[in-house]
Amino acid sequence: MFIGRQHETSLLEELFNKKDGKLIVIYGRRRIGKSELMHHYLQNKTHLYIDGLEGEHTPKQIENFINQISHQLKNQFLKNTKFKTWFEVFQYLTEHIFNENKKFVLALDEFQWMAAGQSKLINQIKSFWDTYWKKSGVQLILCGSIAHFMVKKVIHSKALYGRIDLEILLEGLTPNEVTKLIPNKDPQEILRYSLIFNGVPKYYEVLDKNLSFEKNLNKHCFSKNSFFFTEIKKIFYSQFKEHSTYKKIAQLLAQKNYTLEELAKKLKISSGGSLKSYLENLELSGFVKSYRNTITQSKKGQKYKLVDPFLKFYYSQILPHENIISNNIGSDIYFRLVKPQINPWMGLAFENFCILNSRKIAILLGIENLTTYSGPVFSPTEGVQFDLVFIRNDKTITLCEIKYHSSPVSTIVVKEFSEKLKKFKAPKGFSIEKVLIASNGVDKNLSELCFFEQIITGNDFFKN
Predict the structure, then answer these.
(1) How many CB atoms lie within 10 A of CB 137?
(2) Among candidates 123, 71, 78, which has minimal Cα distance to 96?
(3) Per residue in 50-63, pLDDT tens?
(4) Global pTM?
(5) Domain boundaries for CATH 3.40.50.300 within the chain
(6) DSSP annotation of 304
(7) Which top CATH class is 6-169?
(8) Nearest in space to 287 (alpha carbons), one of 201, 347, 218, 200
(9) Is CATH 2.120.10.30 the right assignment for the domain spanning 357-462?
(10) Sheet of strand 384-392, all strands in order from the earlier edge strand to the far edge
(11) How far is 459 from 440, CA to CA, in rounded Å?
(12) May I ask the CATH architecture of the domain 175-344?
């Protein structure tokens, strides 16, 4: 069942209805649903959909390309024809497939593999695009799961400069859309799933819809050869060439947030170009985000934070039991070793969930069109940190306190928040709005106190 992506689909359809050809780039992390989006969009359109081969060089990529189009076109003669270069392949498409009187979509998936990590294919596409395809009304979609390649080598390439009509960074499904992936579940149970899997569609497909949250984790995360136990290797190996270095960075950031200099010291490498490049690639992939002292917008003290929910869960809860899982030592590992101590982690995961879904929070607060920045505040000079802050163009700063509890939050939170508020120095001319985000809501006493201007509950995330 295809869920969501109405905005992306409407953008693609709008371009398809234009007379001239359009060049589109789609990218995003593995498992996010890029291929599903394209398959859904390509229905009822004359098209070719080609999938690149991981780890293969150009001759094999060309052979695979021809095999796929011969199968889709039901052309046995084409399958037996040998093509040595991309030029020959594209010349064939231009002369025999693309028709100036009919719209045609050419979708190239896992494009970074098809290009074999090089720019030659991109340069060849540029030549045919300028000379033939754009005039013929071809809609060309280049899609890839290695974000830094798609951004640096495709979107920012000199060859395609000024030619790309649409860029789509495909992100996770919204919390409300997640409810459709696991129907008939209580909002609090959906929230627990979301703290680990956020909006990654593939992850919800793996789950057994008839099992509870805890039984699903036990089965799919804490048993040998289970999907999520082995997923970590696929995430880094398929995304990054120096995958071991990227894993080290992610594992360090799973423990705490670090500045560039702190990371360099921990990794025993220079804080110059290479480390910055690693971090930039992790950010492009959506695994890491950098946050400044957001009130002053100063880069001083900028910290890097691991924000991918599954990676945070893996390093904190799965990795410590890796040997036990690998050697099949006992069963019910989640229930025996993880469940008794998982609540503090769930609290941190809820903070991360709120940061990732700050746009939804802004909508709930009615400040979506006022917000100029959202994220946590790290302010070492004042010794204070707020989980989530919205800086607004109406000279207001919305400070959010985030609490994950199995029961409604009591008035104790007022004292905690007030102590932090004393240390917080708002810029001159700014007023403060206090917001509480509580997973299970608040008790009657706190509600009647009216200390917080607005209160959001965990259930609110899953409403339209």
Answers:
(1) 19
(2) 78
(3) 999 998 999 999 99
(4) 0.91
(5) 6-169
(6) E
(7) alpha beta
(8) 200
(9) no
(10) 371-379, 384-392, 396-403, 431-438, 454-457
(11) 8
(12) Orthogonal Bundle (1.10)
